What does this fold into?
Amino acid sequence: MESLLSLLVRQGLLRRHVENGQVAYQLDAGCLRWCLGDGLPPPDPLYSRSAQQEGYTSVRRPINPFFQELYRAGAAGLGSLEAREHTAQVVRPGERERRERRFRGEERDRRLPYLICSPTLELGVDIADLDLVHLRNVPPTPANYAQRSGRAGRQGQPGLIVTYCSAFNSHDQYYFRRRAEMVAGRVRPPRLDLANESLLRAHIHAVWLAQVRLPLGNSIETVIDADREELPLRETVAQQIQLEESARQQVKEQVQKLLAADRQLLDKSGWFSERWLQQVIEEAPQAFDRAFDRWRELYRAATQQLEAANRQLQTTRQKKDQQEAERRQQEALRQRNLLLQIGTQREESDFYPYRYLASEGFLPGYNFPALPVRAWVPRGSEGEFIARPRFLAIREFAPHNFLYHEGCQWEAVAFQAPPGGLEERKSSHKLCFSCGAFADPHLDCCPVCGTQFDGQNSLFTQLLEMPNVRMRRRDRITADEEERRRQGYELQTFFQFAPESSGYRVQEADVLSGQTPLLQLRYAPAATLLRINHGWRGSGGRGFLVNFDTGEVLSRTQIQQSRTGSSDPTRLQRVCLAVRSTQNLLLVRLVQPGLGDPQTLETSLRYALKRGIEETFELEESELAAESIGQGSHRAILLYETAEGGAGVLRRLVEEPEALAEVAQASLEICHFRLSEAGVQDLRPECRAACYECLLSYANQREALELDRYKIRDLLGELAHSRTDPGSSRQEHLDWLRQLVDPRSELERRFLEALAEGGYRLPDDAQKSISEPRCVVDFFYDPNICVFCDGAVHDEPTRAEQDRQLRAQLLEGGYRVIVLRYDQNLQEQLARYPEVFGQGN
It folds into this structure.
């Protein structure tokens, strides 16, 4: 058998695949031979035996009439069914209008029966006769449903709305069981984080630009002098954007009027001030100029490619080389035409000036991703740029990943090196594995958790900030490539708090059940998130091998060739990719993980809280991300808002006492539980751990074995009755208690450290004075618990008798007394009073 399989591999009929020491063989689909049949199933050549002599009856296998009729009649109709994309990614001149005309039946070509549109249905045409809308998934909110479904059946005409509910999407399944809540649900007003610094700066820029009265025209060339090598602002533009003091004062007064209703909220943010407002207005001209840097980078790269292609055409003497030079020349011209808005509709291009400034974050642009990564797709004799948000691009545009666009398959094969080279995009960082922060490479300790860096808890790494990429058409994918794509990339997220004068811009709170802490919350607005792609899973996190001259990313075959000397290794560097973004984030740390598998508890809680937040605040699944971060005592759940400008929901979880309890109640319902006077009831006992109607989803398949709704039932039940204390954090309270302890008492210090490290409940007070009987209690728990830490001095007979009498008087006065001894195990003593100190970690 081995010889036969080896022969078939050599002949190209089979492909050999080895994984985890196991050898498998896969049939090459390109070697299959398809023949026209007569509508009858052929006999099985392996298992059927048919005698050919007289007296034997030939028996045919039974026919499935459904498929027979489908292939004979239905296939013709299905073959004529055509669907075309109608989104902002269709940038070929006039193509969107042509598809609209075909959809309305106004073209001589056959009518286009099906348009695939973005959620906003970017038609911009009269579609009063539209009678069918097919939603490929359940919209996030009833407002979205009304907006999308309302496209059909206008002007009193009937309309049909079909919504597909995926079996592998928890959101879809949730509303499939509660259809009335989506179809006729309450439309809530939209949410916006008005205290978002980036969002407010963009609106101030808009007021400034209106005051400047600068006509941007239809092309960035109106603003940028493309005839000069450095691509500066045109002199007239540079002069016009410099406002006099009186004009700047008018901008400031207009902004103050706009912000008057929200001034109290902004003053509490910690970063907003009159000085900040003045600085944004004064620096607006420089920010306006910098906003065009990414356009300059693309334009210079296209110009360099055009000049190189022209030189090659003048010097080459081979027909093949001339054709390649002509192809690169036309590609460069197409890129420059797109950048200059030549031959494109003004609103259809990412480089329409107002749309471009919105994508760069200079102007507000809620429908456009800020600072996107772009991919050049060379379709035929033309080509186009397609954009993705950075956190999506680091996966979708990653080296040798495959992208489907306009009915074709494309592979990311190279980076578009900026004129200064890829070296300019390299940076060095230290990554703290203890808490998940990233820091400057010269630091010896983590600025967030204080951990001293070593080879085990940190990593010094060089990262390549992800540039724009070039795609290549692919007609066929090999078995190895398909398997690698299934495994995906190894991605990690790290964070850095926004600085302020007193340290970091962080807001902390505790989630309490009675007086017992359940969760510690740490909210960080405008934090910097660093997303790192370490390469394909199974590659050991070694990153990608990149030619820093050409931008080409080597595949496995090319890596082998470089080792044999067929590729110049001098400019090859192995790097990990990174993107960064400014987002609001929330760190959630379990104070009392409880018994059982902590990994299962944490993973289940992470997805339950994410789903609960989405349903409570009506967020799309893509608007909120949840990951695990850190390790040991600093391990936490990282939640961050991905929507442009922020949704403002994470801030509410810290500031509103009942917000997290409401989320926990929604999470319980999602996990098939219901709160009652008798406790938490299980509404679906047949769901043994998790299902696609609760915690499971297509996106978390790799963590399916770590999901168990029963592991978080009791915790969610406690959280549903909890309150969030937005006052001083646990750490601040602990620091205050440390200042109060008797400096002569080693036992008091040990007691506090044991409570802190073990996740026990902290005392409400220390060295508390009691008037009757007159005494000072070492530690006090509200409302009546006195804790004494008795060291060796309390063994002296006279002191011991005084202690006995005093504590008897406290008991008579209604106090409860707990005595901790220096000569007994402290952990065992804490375990005797779980109703006071809690269960601990």
Q: What stands out?
A: The longest strand covers residues 516-536.
